[in-house]
């Protein structure tokens, strides 16, 4: 996507495989800072501390993390131990393990002397694939928006949660790809952006990227979605995902489940944009089986922003001594999901369809 006229991706290899450049997303929307990541350890910190975030981008970052590992030591022991450390950087988004496993199975059979070049080539391929996958999700999701636009005049009103935009992928975004494609087609749109407490990825990231792309949008508190749906102000919900089980249970940013419940109660279609790299065919019951990341209580008790003087600052919201819990994701049961928008088309959230999809993407 373009930022102020300049094409930008969230991650790219630089200097012929010496390092990787990423956007430090902790500083958006107030500062656009490109950081250089020069080792696997630095990439682990970038993933763990959410300089990069969003399931597909975490996958691409992990792949480059393995490539950085090979710059330092391409021996068997370093490969195995380093991959385990990268895999453990964050628990919920399955794209992390998916990318590490892909890198490992490609590199293991090779002699150490060939691993470095092979690792950079595959990491680049994974990143390029992510761009193509999300562009294809955009095409399939566009049909959903076009169908609503054809039914009546006025903007198609879309609600999204968290940031499943281009900042969460290498480019395009998953949930935003259909929005960007619809905008290119000249379809009138309006996007409700959930702020997405506690880290506010909606307020800080989705609002920023939609603004840069010129997509009309309005930020709402997380609690507003049910009210808007009751009033007929939402035609379609579309969100991203961090892990989807073979039965179609969807794990995504905390608060997604409440939006799906409200959508169900109000007859609003609730779609999930899912690259097949986010399908975890080993898991069935999402509520019981998907590991949910518990993040620092400080993300709930404090909030960061820009002061009137233009300084980045953090303030405390709660009485001294208040304890807080911070589960970062929740699971929306398949029965609440209208469909999964993938690079291969829109699939029902059920086991038969997802087994067929898994078989197709394994080919
Ligand atoms: O904790 P985050 O910011 O990594 O969580 C991101 C989300 O939950 C996204 O909605 C999801 O990864 C889909 S991104 C295309």
From TrEMBL:
One of its GO terms (biological process) is L-methionine salvage from methylthioadenosine. It catalyses: 5-deoxy-alpha-D-ribose 1-phosphate = 5-deoxy-D-ribulose 1-phosphate; 5-(methylsulfanyl)-alpha-D-ribose 1-phosphate = 5-(methylsulfanyl)-D-ribulose 1-phosphate. It is an enzyme of class 5 (isomerase). Substrate binds at residues 53-55, 90, 201, 252-253. Pathway: Amino-acid biosynthesis; L-methionine biosynthesis via salvage pathway; L-methionine from S-methyl-5-thio-alpha-D-ribose 1-phosphate: step 1/6. Keywords: Amino-acid biosynthesis, Initiation factor, Isomerase, Methionine biosynthesis, Protein biosynthesis. The active site is at residue 242. It comes from the Bacteria. The record marks 162 as: Transition state stabilizer. Its EC number is 5.3.1.23. InterPro entries: IF-2B-related, IF-M1Pi, IF_2B-like_C, Initiation_fac_2B_a/b/d, M1Pi_N, NagB/RpiA_transferase-like. One of its GO terms (molecular function) is translation initiation factor activity. NCBIfam families: eIF-2B_rel (TIGR00524), PRK05720.1 (NF004326), salvage_mtnA (TIGR00512). Catalyzes the interconversion of methylthioribose-1-phosphate (MTR-1-P) into methylthioribulose-1-phosphate (MTRu-1-P). Also catalyzes the interconversion of 5-deoxyribose 1-phosphate and 5-deoxyribulose 1-phosphate. Part of a bifunctional DHAP-shunt salvage pathway for SAM by-products. Belongs to the EIF-2B alpha/beta/delta subunits family. MtnA subfamily. This is Methylthioribose-1-phosphate isomerase.
């Amino acid at each position: 996507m373009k930022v102020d006229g300049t094409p930008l991706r969230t991650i790219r290899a630089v200097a012929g495989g010496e390092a990787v450049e990423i956007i430090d997303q902790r500083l958006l929307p107030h500062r656009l800072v490109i950081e250089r990541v020069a080792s696997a350890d630095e990439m682990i910190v970038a993933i763990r501390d959410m300089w990069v975030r969003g399931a597909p981008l975490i996958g691409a970052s992990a792949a480059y993390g393995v490539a950085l590992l090979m710059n330092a030591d391409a021996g068997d022991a370093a490969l195995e131990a380093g991959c385990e450390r990268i895999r453990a950087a964050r628990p919920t988004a399955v794209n992390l393990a998916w990318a590490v496993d892909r890198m490992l199975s490609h590199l293991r059979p090779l002699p150490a002397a060939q691993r470095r070049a092979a690792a950079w080539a595959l990491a680049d391929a994974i990143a390029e694939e992510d761009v193509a996958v999300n562009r294809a999700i955009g095409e399939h999701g566009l049909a959903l928006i076009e169908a609503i636009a054809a039914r009546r005049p006025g903007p198609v009103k879309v609600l999204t949660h968290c940031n499943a935009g281009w900042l969460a992928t290498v480019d395009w975004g998953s949930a935003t790809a259909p929005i960007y494609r619809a905008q290119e087609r000249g379809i009138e749109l309006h996007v409700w952006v959930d702020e997405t407490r506690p880290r506010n990825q909606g307020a800080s990231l989705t609002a920023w990227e939609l603004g840069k792309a010129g997509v009309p949008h309005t930020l709402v508190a997380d609690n507003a979605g049910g009210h808007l749906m009751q009033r007929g102000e939402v035609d379609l919900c579309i969100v991203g995902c961090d892990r989807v089980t073979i039965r179609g249970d969807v794990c995504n940013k905390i608060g997604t489940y409440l939006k799906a419940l409200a959508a169900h109660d109000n007859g609003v279609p609730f779609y999930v944009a899912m690259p097949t790299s986010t399908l975890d065919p080993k898991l069935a019951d999402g509520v019981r089986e998907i590991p949910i990341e518990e993040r620092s209580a400080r993300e709930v008790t404090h909030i960061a922003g820009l002061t009137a003087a233009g300084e980045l600052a953090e303030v405390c919201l709660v009485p001294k001594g208040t304890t807080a819990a911070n589960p970062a994701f929740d699971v929306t049961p398949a029965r609440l999901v209208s469909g999964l928008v993938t690079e291969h088309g829109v699939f029902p959230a059920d086991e038969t369809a997802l087994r067929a999809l898994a078989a197709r993407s394994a080919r």
